[in-house]
Structures are given as C-alpha cells and as structure tokens.
C-alpha cells in the first residue's frame, strides 16, 4: 500500500526535490572529539524544557494528586484491603463452586 501511495504521489506531483534552508540546520557545536549538530540539539533542548515545565505543572497543581496519593504509603495502608486471617474466612470469600453440566 505504501509503495502504491508513493508511486501515485510521484506521478501526481513529480520528483522535484526541494530543500528547506533553516539557520540551525547547517552549523554544529564543536565539542572536542565530536560535533553536535544544532538540528539535533534544538529539539532536544525544547523537549527538555517541556518535560521540566510539565513536571513543575504537575507538582504544583491538583492534576497529579491521584498518582501522588497512590505513592503515599500511609494512604496505601489505609486503603488496602485486609487479608483473611484464617482458612475458614478464606473459604467464605471464595465464590461457590458450580457443578459441571452432566455429560449427554
């Protein structure tokens, strides 16, 4: 399907490739043994700013309250179901066993 789509687009629009000139595409940051291109550095820095911003937003609002509440150990102990203490109470918690239908 992808090949058919590609061929259809080539037939409709042609094979003229065009380039985009942006100021951050060509240059790179030289760091001794390696070069770090700005075209990779810019999206990385933008994503890190977004992650930090999201973390600050979630930590200062009530949007993240349920997940923070789930990490609170005292709240977990209060909300956790208690385990049965004896085998009699354990068997009382089980669902009744239904007999299999008789063979025909």
What does this structure look like?
The protein is mainly alpha-helical. It contains five helices and two strands, in the order αββαααα. The protein has a two-stranded antiparallel ribbon with strand order 1-2.
Q: Report the average pLDDT across residues.
A: 75
Contiguous runs where pLDDT drops below 50 for at least 5 residues: none
Which sheet architecture does the biggest sheet show? 2 strands, antiparallel
List the secondary-structure elements in sequence, H or E. HEEHHHH
For the secondary structure, the number of strands is 2
Beta fraction: 5-15%
Helix content: 40-55%
Rg computed from alpha carbons, rounded to a whole number of angstroms: 31 Å
Question: Number of helix segments?
Answer: 5
Give the overall form.
elongated
The neighbouring-strand order within the major sheet is: 1-2
Structural class: mainly alpha
Distance between the termini: 52 Å
Mind sketching the topology for me?
Elements: H1 2-13, E1 28-31, E2 34-37, H2 38-60, H3 65-71, H4 73-79, H5 87-93
Summary?
The protein is mainly alpha-helical and about 100 residues long. The protein contains 5 helices and 2 strands, in the order αββαααα.
Key terms for this structure?
104 residues, 2 strands, mainly alpha
């Amino acid at each position: 399907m992808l090949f058919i789509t590609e061929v259809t687009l080539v037939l409709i629009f042609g094979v003229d490739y065009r380039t985009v000139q942006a100021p951050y595409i060509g240059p790179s940051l030289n760091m001794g043994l390696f070069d770090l291109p700005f075209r990779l550095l810019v999206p990385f820095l933008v994503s890190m700013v977004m992650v930090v911003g999201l973390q600050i937003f979630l930590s200062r609002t009530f949007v993240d309250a349920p997940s923070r509440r789930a990490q609170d150990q005292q709240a977990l102990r209060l909300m956790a179901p208690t385990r049965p203490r004896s085998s009699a109470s354990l068997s009382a918690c089980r669902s009744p066993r239904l007999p299999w239908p008789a063979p025909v």
